[in-house]
Amino acid sequence: MNFELKPFSLVEAANQKCDALLVLVPQEFKPGKDAFSALLGQLQKAGDLPLKAGRVLSLYQPAQAQAPRVVIAGVEGGSAKQWRQAVQAAFASVKSAQPKKLVLAVAGPAGEVGLRAVVSALAEASYVYTTTKSKPEGRVLQKVLLACSDAAALQTAFARACAIVQGVELAKEWANRPANHATPTLLAKAAQQLAEQPRFGCEVLGPKEVAKLGMGAFMAVAQGSEQPLQFIVLRYNGAARTKAPTVLVGKGITFDSGGISIKPAAEMDEMKFDMSGAASVLGTFQALAALRPAINVVGLIPACENLINGRAVKPGDVVTSMSGQTIEILNTDAEGRLVLCDALTYAERFKPQAVIDIATLTGACVIALGAVRSGLFAGNAELGQALSRAGELAQDLCWPMPLDDEYGEGLKTQFADIANVAGRAGGAISAAKFLQGFTGKLAWAHLDIAGTAWKSGAAKGATGRPVGLLVEYLMAQAAPERSAK
Ligand code: BES
Ligand code: MN
Ligand code: ZN
Hints:
Blueprint: E1 2-6, H1 10-14, E2 20-25, H2 35-46, E3 56-60, E4 69-74, H3 80-92, E5 101-106, H4 111-126, E6 143-147, H5 155-176, H6 184-194, E7 200-205, H7 207-213, H8 216-222, E8 230-237, E9 246-250, E10 252-256, H9 276-291, E11 296-306, E12 317-320, E13 326-329, H10 336-347, E14 354-359, H11 363-369, E15 374-378, H12 381-394, E16 398-400, E17 418-419, H13 427-436, E18 444-448, E19 454-455, E20 461-462, H14 467-478, H15 480-483
Parallel strand pairs: 1-6, 2-4, 2-5, 5-6, 9-11, 9-14, 10-11, 13-17, 14-18, 15-16
Antiparallel strand pairs: 3-4, 7-8, 8-11, 12-13, 15-18, 19-20
The protein binds ligand BES, manganese (II) ion and zinc ion.
């Protein structure tokens, strides 16, 4: 989909040829002198202007506009949520007409919050997954012209929002694919294809190389599957080699059956989304390709299936991780931390300035935070704050969670250096404590996206989160003065 941003007035926007014109009206709207504003003024006087976010007024072929369909929607107080609601409601009321070209005009300034919300909400509302349909009917919407009075001041934010949309959509594509269409090998191919861009590189390590590295925890998860594991190393080199990179580690379990500690059948299909962390790393790299910031980034993806066969790892088995620490695998369904711990050890070789892992790690995080905010576990306070800020800017929120050592007590065992599970209480935190045991002196943070990476029920599908948060964090590293308040 193609977005364009223009500093058009309402009347200029209304004179564009398109299939539908959506007009977003801020609460403080004051009509100008042109014909289209006059129409809005009339509605305002009559008390018919839909000022509540989510309310719309549809007009058909009004004389004041070129578009056959015109929808007016209020944005009320102008919070990100209200902008999104307005866009969703306005788009919903023209969707059945299958518009190819839309003009979305703000009756005044959009501001950065409004612009971001509009771009992401329109992309989301028009997104269609087609890869495994026999007769694909893809996205109809092709072109969106955005018009607002402050367009000139918003070009940087606009470029970023568009790059984030591209990244989010790549992440959604891979997360949405069923596990038989998104095997570890196919994920590795996708990474290699991404790396065909300038300044990119990609190396994929297979079972032999991973064994040589001694990644016993990662291998233990993969050994119950016929699909060979893949360890993907993506690189974006936007700065001098001497500049320390940021490392992103994405959990890439392409299907999580639970292993011998098998999951219940209900909704097990949703465990195809268990590589959403990996998908968010791919999506973030896609956005980097568009934005080309002067930073270095490494993406690490341990990818495998968590299945069951005669060779599958068993509860009670003890394995040796790449760090040398032995792990008692008490529950084979706590596999994410096993693949991540070896990737975190591998990350040390890059002498990174920061390491961020992204994982659909625990059901407990879904219970704690629901689908609204991702769980943020920061071993480094400064990194945690930067990630929180990035999430707010991108409207892709997270929430800080604790890492007191007491939360790790339950991971003690007589049979190895550490167990892979503690009790049920505080399960998202003990999982994070497990990971922390493999981060040494690294500046590390962990994002548990179990609740935010996909939606269940009728609207089942990947969200592409937290690509927005990650891209904003990285862009702030490239231009720290911009992020400072
Ligand atoms: N991928 C799951 C976490 C998950 C569950 C994400 C539900 C989204 C929705 C993870 O591998 C897992 O199974 N975790 C276990 C850990 C437990 C055995 C300590 C869990 O959360 O139940
Ligand atoms: Mn699991
Ligand atoms: Zn899992």
